[in-house]
Amino acid sequence: QMLDEFAKLPVPLRQQLGPQLMKNLIDKGAIDVAEQLDLILLRSPVMVNEALTLARARLLDVSGRLAEAERLYLQLSQSNRPEAQMALILLLESRVNRKSGGSPELSNALADAAFTARDSAMELPLKVAEIRSRAMSDGASSALGVLLKAIERAGGQSDLLRDVGHAALEQISPVDDDPVDYAKAVTMLGPYISDGLAADPARRRVS
Question: 133, 139, 195: which is closest to 162 by C-alpha?
Answer without folding.
Answer: 195
